[in-house]
Amino acid sequence: MGMHGILVQQQRLLEAIILAALAASASAAEPTNSSCIRTCGSLQIPYPFGTTEGCYLDPAFLITCHDSTPFLRRGHIKVLNISLDGELRVTTPIGHDCPNNETTSSYNYELSLLTFSVSYTRNKFTALGCDTYAIIRGTLEKQNFATGCISVCSKIDSVVNGSCSGIGCCQTSIPHGMKNFRVVLRSFNHHSKVGDFNPCSFGFIAEEKAYNFSSLDLINFQNRKTLPLVLDWAVGKETCPDAQKNSTTYACNAEHSECENSPNGPGYRCICRSGYEGNPYLSNDCKDINECEISNPCNTTCTNIPGSFKCDCPKGYEGDGMKNGTGCRLIVTRYRSIPLLLGIGIGFLVLLVGASWIYWGLKRRKLIKLKEKFFKQNGGLMLQQQLSNFEGSVEPAKIFSTKELKKATNNYDESKILGQGGNGIVFKGVLPGNKAVAIKKSKVFDRSQTKQFINEVCLLTQINHRNVVKLLGCCLETRVPILVYEFITNGTLFEHIHYKSHLFSLSWENRMKIAVESAGALAYLHSEASMPIIHRDVKTANILLDDNLTAKVADFGASRLISLDETQVNTLVQGTFGYLDPEYFHSGQLTEKSDVYSFGVVVAELLTGRRAILSDKTEGERNLAMYFVSSVIEDRLLQILDNHIVNEGNIEELKEVANLAKKCLSVRGEDRPSMKEVAMELEGLRNMKKNPQEKVDLKTEETKYVVTNSTQSFSIDAGTSNSSTVTTTVAYDGTIKGR
Ligand SMILES: *[C@@H]1O[C@H](CO)[C@@H](O)[C@H](O)[C@H]1NC(C)=O
Ligand SMILES: *[C@@H]1O[C@H](CO)[C@@H](O)[C@H](O)[C@H]1NC(C)=O
Ligand SMILES: *[C@@H]1O[C@H](CO)[C@@H](O)[C@H](O)[C@H]1NC(C)=O
Ligand SMILES: *[C@@H]1O[C@H](CO)[C@@H](O)[C@H](O)[C@H]1NC(C)=O
Ligand SMILES: *[C@@H]1O[C@H](CO)[C@@H](O)[C@H](O)[C@H]1NC(C)=O
Ligand SMILES: *[C@@H]1O[C@H](CO)[C@@H](O)[C@H](O)[C@H]1NC(C)=O
Ligand SMILES: *[C@@H]1O[C@H](CO)[C@@H](O)[C@H](O)[C@H]1NC(C)=O
Ligand SMILES: *[C@@H]1O[C@H](CO)[C@@H](O)[C@H](O)[C@H]1NC(C)=O
């Protein structure tokens, strides 16, 4: 053991030396000197205050103890209490002025060294008397000040105990940073009128809490000589940041000690950090507060930790565990929380429903307003008026509501789209009563033509021709009016000619029938008494077929109803390229003959089975019209005819129809036959073949017509080919002879 024991002893010795050295260095900085007297009478004198040199921080904190009575420094101000939080309670004399007894009427109060300030939060200046005015004068930071109050009363009964508002007692606040003061008392009438109940005035600056005014004090207050005064004490004259710069003089070096600027004048104070208590001016004196032992703030297990504490809730509980906090609560299980969640959920739902109800309500109102606006803008009122005046054999136009149409088209479902073009979209709809309709939503509408639009809607709904798609009505509640037509079942002529997948290729007979019927429809509308209706957009895509392959011309006049969409390159000129009348295109002058030209293209399409715009550029022409005309002129008709329709029996008929088409395609409108002539000629050709014996009857009818209109010659500019002029003559029998 020998060796080991010596080592241990040596180590202990070393530790002792180190501890001694540490203690010595600490005592150099702080007076842990046990010989320091820390009491005087009943007063505790904590450091930085001290009674002897080496026991206080600096001479400002000297307490002189005389016969167990502590005095501030070497003066005569008695110290009542020293608090480490920066307050010092001392006694202050009470000034009195008794005019009949020639006593002093003022007193001075000066704090030695001017280091401590009179607390402005704890003290008040108070004067008592019924014939009194009292003044305080003092020095703040290098400036003087004066303030005071007046107290007057005529009877003792008029004063109120506890109230210092100028009757028997008055009070004022004192300013910041006051270090010394002088109280001066004066009377107005030497108390001559109030002497029996108030012979003297009194004045003092004292702790507010320490004095309660009583009417008795007006009579014999002079028995009391002093009151407590609270001073704010502080270390040095610097603020915390400045003081911290010099660690040799900085007073708050101790562990868990913090610096705090003095609230009243220069200097700083030290405080123990929160959760610690002790003397912050002494090293190792800020001790952890054991909150658990002292106050036990926890409702459950309390654990003290340095500077704080912890309340631990048992397992399965939650909360802060504090008595005055949430305490510990059983953790609500998910099962238990279901009703709560349900409640929240339902509440939320109700809120949501309410909000959306309001939202939709507002939106609906807005929508209704908008609908009304559109209805008016689109001439709805005008139409209603016209319809009410309307007395015809046919059903008048119906004004549909957006709601009806939405329902009919299943809210414009994509699957209901029948066709889509530059002008708009056509939906299939089903009205109540299982009536199928085609609903055309157009893109653009020219508001300047509202009146015309309404007129045409009225006009078109009156047209009851078996080869015209019937306009049933319209809806005006949208930005652009929606038109509702009867629904035609079997697609467009365009599809029948050009979609090879169509099971049945149209026979010539059927093509002829369609041509005759559409020509008849066009002629009928051109001859409409009140206002010739020009289609403007005759094309195979606008000739619909029903199950019996009966032609139904669609979109009649719609091009004017639905004005000018974005394809409007030339103002007002519209139509479909390939079908567009070149004269109309160049001049902008629209006549019935434009429809004749377009119809010529339709017939050429029927004959050749080719599209109006040729896809095959090797044919040298872009337009079927040009290509067709030049082929007819150059006698190449047989080469361009649709193979499906040519047979031994009908070649002559085809040629005649081709010639008619060629005439329709004349460049100059006046060179084209009218639609009526075209219709009659086609009818004639068709009937001749069907019933040769009826030929005579027809001829007489036709002759009658042709005679009234006189024979015409048509001049055709063959366009690009040789620009030769060819003259054709319409013979009385309706055939066309060309050279
Ligand atoms: C303790 O105080 C006494 C008297 O004030 C003084 O004489 C002595 O030197 C002090 N001791 C230390 C270690 O400061
Ligand atoms: C002196 O102050 C301490 C706290 O600092 C307090 O407990 C004590 O009651 C006070 N004594 C007087 C006479 O005010
Ligand atoms: C005035 O002084 C006399 C004695 O000098 C004393 O008896 C009397 O009470 C005093 N009066 C007042 C109002 O202080
Ligand atoms: C002043 O009155 C209040 C209540 O009126 C009382 O609590 C307080 O102790 C009194 N102070 C003195 C110094 O009498
Ligand atoms: C004020 O209180 C005292 C007792 O404290 C009482 O004798 C006196 O009559 C009171 N004065 C008034 C005006 O209420
Ligand atoms: C710190 O204060 C002491 C005493 O007032 C002084 O001698 C010393 O120069 C100061 N140090 C600094 C860095 O200011
Ligand atoms: C709750 O207790 C803490 C510590 O005991 C205390 O600081 C706080 O003021 C209390 N709060 C209330 C509302 O009592
Ligand atoms: C604290 O505990 C007591 C009994 O243990 C209980 O009555 C009280 O409600 C609790 N307080 C809190 C805030 O949890």
Characterize this entry briefly.
Helix content is 31%, strand content 22%. By secondary structure, the protein is of the alpha+beta class.
Topology, pairings included?
Blueprint: H1 2-29, E1 39-40, E2 43-44, E3 63-66, E4 69-72, E5 79-83, E6 87-93, E7 95-97, E8 106-110, E9 117-118, E10 123-128, E11 131-140, E12 143-152, E13 169-172, E14 180-186, E15 201-207, H2 217-220, E16 226-232, H3 240-245, E17 257-261, E18 268-272, E19 276-277, E20 287-288, H4 291-294, E21 301-305, E22 308-312, E23 317-318, E24 329-330, H5 334-377, H6 380-389, E25 398-400, H7 402-408, E26 417-420, E27 424-431, E28 435-442, H8 450-462, E29 471-475, E30 482-486, H9 493-498, H10 508-526, E31 543-545, E32 551-553, H11 558-561, H12 582-587, H13 592-608, H14 624-633, H15 637-640, H16 651-664, H17 675-690, H18 695-709, E33 713-717, E34 725-730, E35 736-738
Parallel strand pairs: 25-29
Antiparallel strand pairs: 1-2, 3-4, 5-6, 6-16, 7-15, 8-14, 9-16, 10-13, 10-15, 11-12, 11-14, 17-18, 19-20, 21-22, 23-24, 26-27, 27-28, 28-30, 29-30, 31-32, 33-34, 34-35
Bound molecules: 2-acetamido-2-deoxy-beta-D-glucopyranose (8 copies).
Residues 299, 323, 327-328 line the site of one 2-acetamido-2-deoxy-beta-D-glucopyranose.
